[in-house]
Write a structure and sequence with these properties.
This protein is of the alpha/beta class. Helix content is about 20%, strand content about 25%.
Length: about 375
Amino acid sequence: MYRNGLIVLWAATLAGTHTVNGTPHVRDIFFVGGEYIETDNGDHVRQGQMYVEHLRPTDSTIQAYPIIFIHGATRTGIDWLTKPDGQPGWADYFLARGYECYLVDLPYQGRSPSPPTPPQDLRYFSTEVAAQRFTAPEDFGLWTQAALHTRWPGAGHMGDPVFDQFFSSGNYLIDNVTFQQTTARATVSALVDRIGRPVVLLAHSNGGAVLWLAADARPGLVKALVAIEPLGPPFRADFPAVADARPYGLTDIPIAYDPPVADPAADLVKDLHVSNSTDLANCTLQAEPARKLANLTDLPVLVVTGQASYHARYDWCSVEFLKQAGVDAEHLQLEAANITGNGHFVFMETNSDSIASQIAKWLAKIF
């Protein structure tokens, strides 16, 4: 609700329900993308549209480039508004620094709930998986760096009030990565078109594929990319199991290369780089001479990785892949900036403002 020009955010925490005053702004909501389809009985419904929440600060100079926030798998744009412990999220942080913020619920998730045609299988994370990978990895030791995790607010397990808030905000995900990426590319591109001026794209985890695809689709309208532990590593899955994946490198659907790629299995020749540490994953890059990502060449990219996340094993490889493909990629390993103890959901953890500050400094540097 609005009160005295400030948004009042309500959240359940260890101390009970309380309020947090956010940065003054105006808010509007709209949908982009989608299409009407005819049902079996001759009626029409709409599917594939995307919910967008636009926040514009009122008490500061507006930055030149708005930020589009793209959530990860089973998540929604709510992730950026309020952290599970009730503290303000990254949307408020960047609003306070003059950035317009666009928060999306990708198609078929959250407030973009139309049923897909044809019907698709759904998947979700259980409370056990969420604790193992995201909120309490230090209790399971599934990767070496997990022991360093200290920044989740609360115990990180079912029954803890902060965990319960986090888990309650999740939803099901369509279990078809090509369908996900195709629909998300179309709707995020439609949002960029509607904004009509250059933007920054900021994405987390599974949203990382959307980051590359939307920038590829709208190269003249994307000024920079911020990838928070993006989907990776290239060409293969590393965790929870090693398997072939992402035939186009960091995406499962086509992205423009120079020279062009007709058949990724044949045209993208791979070269395995064996890690010199058991703490780091092996890395599959292109064999030289490497093709370039035609519409991402020289685009500024910041990849952010938490010290204790499973991404600490392999985000270095995603960065090397981007650099090899001509992208102006920089890797912010948080411990190198004396920001320690973070897992996969860095923007929900107790030191999230310190991480946002590093991103804001990078944006100021490149612009």
